[in-house]
Amino acid sequence: MVTEVEPLAGEELVTVKIRVFGREDKVVRVPRGSTIERVIRLLSLNPVEVVAAKNGEVVTEEEEVEDGDFIELYSVVSGG
Amino acid sequence: MVSCALCGKRAVIRVGYLDKPLCADHFSEFFEKRFRQMLVRFDMVDKGDVVAVATSGGKDSLVTLYLMEKFSEEFGYSVFALAIDEGISGYREYKLDALVSVARKIGVELYVISFKKSLGATLDEMVNVLKSKGMVYKPCGICGVFRRYLINLAARELGANKVATGHNLDDEAQVFVMNVARSGIPNIVREWPVSRGGHEKLVTRIKPLFFTPEKESLVYSLIRGLKTPFVECPYVVYSARHRVRRELNRLEDEKPGVKYRIIASSLLYSRLLSRVVRKTTPQLCKVCGEPSSSEVCKACQFREYLGLGDVSLKIERVS
Question: Which end of chain B is more exposed for a tag (fewer CB within 10 A), N or C?
Fold first, then answer.
């Protein structure tokens, strides 16, 4: 299922693949220039509880996503 | 790309405490320096110490094990890993695999104590008994008491004079909030980076990650390749603490720094209350002879409640 942000007039969307906590793969379409934090919030997650890796590299949530990026989200809350 | 404030390389995290983005190298340096400072500032280790690192296979205990081993030569102590296999199907076996792999990678001995072999039942079996009795006690409460009991026994048996745990800043903030909610004054007094049990049979506990946010611990574990699988304990749904954790994280998202302020308050209250709360020396449990705050220790009370036999400590060396 693709989660898409409604673009404003003239806004271009980029497509990003997300692996959530190693369990679930999702596709999101967000406006170009969106940050990983925006993607995390779009998935109803709390950035305090998530660490992101972009194309295999751990990065801050302030990084912008680009078309075709693969983002892996790791859960800070391990629950055990 | 977000750049490291110190060198311009790609940043892996914005460290809230510094309000600076740092690259993997500078973040690791900062993280390890803080860990080392904890060992020094709180006199956590002495030359000749034998430190048992209580490890669950989760990121925090793996990081603690990795760094305790890293600094062992400099401080002149020795380290081994101690793990409890509670017998939680679909969870513990995966975490133990991760632990065995890290223990082998860094060359530390790993000892495992199973609930089944030492107490006579797995946690899964105990939970079935709890359910049949109406769940008066929750799995996490039972599990925590038995884990602490066995870790203390095994650490002593293996000659350790310190037990290091992976409790981080988030854990400690949650504990403080829960202690306040329960008016647990003696517990508030006790919460400190080093807990000396006040009895020769209680091994001193040290928490080098006391001031480390959980998120930073995860980033460090990923940088160092300390891999742990994405599995959750099935009994987490019963844990009141898990709900507190979620709420504190919501607050932290709204007002960054909340957890640091809670910890600062926790330490302040601990010191202030220690002046007025009378210190009690643990007595020995009249059933098992282990230190206890009451005539019969919690572990023995739970053993009786669950219909378990005597404790028979079985330690297995795994690596």
Answer: N
